[in-house]
Amino acid sequence: MTLVDNQHKTATWTKQFISGKWVEGSGEKTIENINPYTGEVIATWRSSSQEDIDQAYESAQKSSVEWKATLPSMKEGVLRKVSSLMEERKDEIIQLLITESGSTRIKAEAEFAAARRIADESASFSFRMKGELLPSNTPGKENRVVREPKGVIGVIGPWNFPLHLCLRSVAPAIALGNGVVIKPASDTPITAGWLIADLFEQAGLPEGVLNVVAGSGSEIGDYFVTHPIPKVISFTGSTEVGKGIGKLAGEHLKETALELGGNNAMIVLDDADVEHAAQAAVFGKFLHQGQICMALNRIIVHEDIYDRFVQSFVNKTKNIHAGDPADEKTLVGPLIRKKEVERLLELVKQAKEEGAQLVLGGTQQESVLMPTVLADVKPEQEIVQQELFGPVAIIMKAKDEQNAIRLANDTPYGLSGSVFTGNLERGYQVAEQIESGMVHVNDQTVNDEAHVMFGGEKSSGIGRFGGDWAIDKFTRTRWISLQHQFREYPGVN
Predict the structure, then answer these.
(1) CB contact at 8 A, 347 and 382
(2) Which of 3.40.190.10, 3.40.50.150, 1.10.150.130, 3.40.605.10 is the CATH number of 9-260+460-479?
(3) Domain 264-441, what architecture?
(4) 247 exposed, middle or buried (CB, 10 Å; 0-12, 13-18, 19+)?
(5) Distance between the two ends of the chain, CA-based, in angstroms?
(6) Which residue, 404, 314, 407, is CA-closest to 358?
(7) Where are the chain's structural domains?
(8) What is the Cα–Cα distance from 12 to 200, expressed in whole angstroms?
(9) DSSP letter assigned to residue 290
(10) CA pair distance 216, 46, nearest whole angstrom
(11) Model pTM?
(12) Cα(300)–Cα(204) distance, integer angstroms
């Protein structure tokens, strides 16, 4: 199935979605949506303007008032319908992810499943908004702490897991009674924006609750963040951009949910099962070409098993398929842009000059960087301190357990971590010492479950997504007291 074959036609995916209508953007720029593997233009669309953003936020604000008062069962019904529609349109969605973001079929299947679980989990949120009754020292006073939606949420979606990571904010926010405006990444406006709007429209969401504007960050990004209507800006993307969003939001006393970059490490201890650790590391490094915030950047191996691990890791990497993302066997497909291949090859070249050993790869086939492995990488090398976001594996040697922990923590990032060991309690004790929001013992770093908290420390972000943590993020609490009997006030007659 291709985009032009499906029932919505390519032309549908070139318009903004505002107040329940598909309308042409009114910005000055025309932007091309390009297939990263073939280089073909999927669609051409006109960017949104500041006026479009005004209309989208105003629509969300107006519609959210009535949506907030809608019965919980109606909110649940919309989210259940979205999930059902996703299943009905699974083949189409999988093809869109492959075509637009260069997702391999393996990754697209995983993203689809994760995104659908988000919709299913969010469906229950309207029944999980709990308030409290608290005692008072004032006679006759009843203290109520009520929970309610925050109002309007601005969501800036990424290109790497466009459907899942955008829906991760959109579905909970809507389920909890908020209005939403999405600004998808310019590389993936369909799967991070228009597809989501289409699903919610078909599911019966009232007009105006969800809106989509699309354009380059340089043209409309700041205005999208600083606009007076949204109460929360949810952003998933690079740390550099996230810091800029955080600064802008802070100047306007606006709340943020920021899930940013990662320089994630797997520690392989001396008692680990080498084959199992290597297999997990290959998946955690090369899924979606390493273009995942949770992907393994550094693999830190105890010196006693270092050589065996490197050999096993290289052997397993040689067996993975790279190339056409539509091929069911492919694990490594194209990078989102060819300039990313050039960037990574330059980093590999520099690492070799600094003493690292290139034991596999280091070549390209158009926009596909072949799986690359660097061994004997030292902590002071430039490549170690960067989020690579590509299929380049870094393997480092640790003298002992504490040295491995120090190496893992020697980064400004702190998103996800991993520990492999033959003793789970030892793994837990090591995990406690790793400075990251998430750590997985005897598993790789790429894990995400809709009902579990997700988020990082240090430069990897602020806030938590998932389950009850999403409810906290997209709702607010207020204190409303009821004075049941007349209250005497000292000094007042």
Answers:
(1) yes
(2) 3.40.605.10
(3) 3-Layer(aba) Sandwich (3.40)
(4) exposed
(5) 80
(6) 314
(7) 9-260+460-479, 264-441
(8) 15
(9) G
(10) 10
(11) 0.95
(12) 50
Question: Distance (Å, rounded) from C-alpha 177 to C-alpha 174?
Answer: 5
Residue type, position 334, single letter: P
Average pLDDT over residues 12-37: 93
Closest to 161 measured CA to CA, from 294, 15, 323: 294
3-state secondary structure of 383: helix
Strands 41-46 and 457-458: unpaired
The encoded tokens of residue 54 equal 């005004």
CA pseudo-torsion sign 307, 371, 97, 45: positive
Question: What are the pLDDT digits (tens) for 303-353?
Answer: 999 999 999 999 999 999 999 999 999 999 999 999 999 999 999 999 999
Residue for token pair 């999208």: 224
Q: Which amino acid is at 175?
A: A
Positions marked catalytic:
259
228: how many CB neighbours lie within 10 A of its CB? 9
- Domain 9-260+460-479 identical in fold to domain 264-441: no
Place of tokens 């006693």: 304
Q: pLDDT digit string (tens) for 449-477?
A: 999 999 999 999 999 999 999 999 999 99
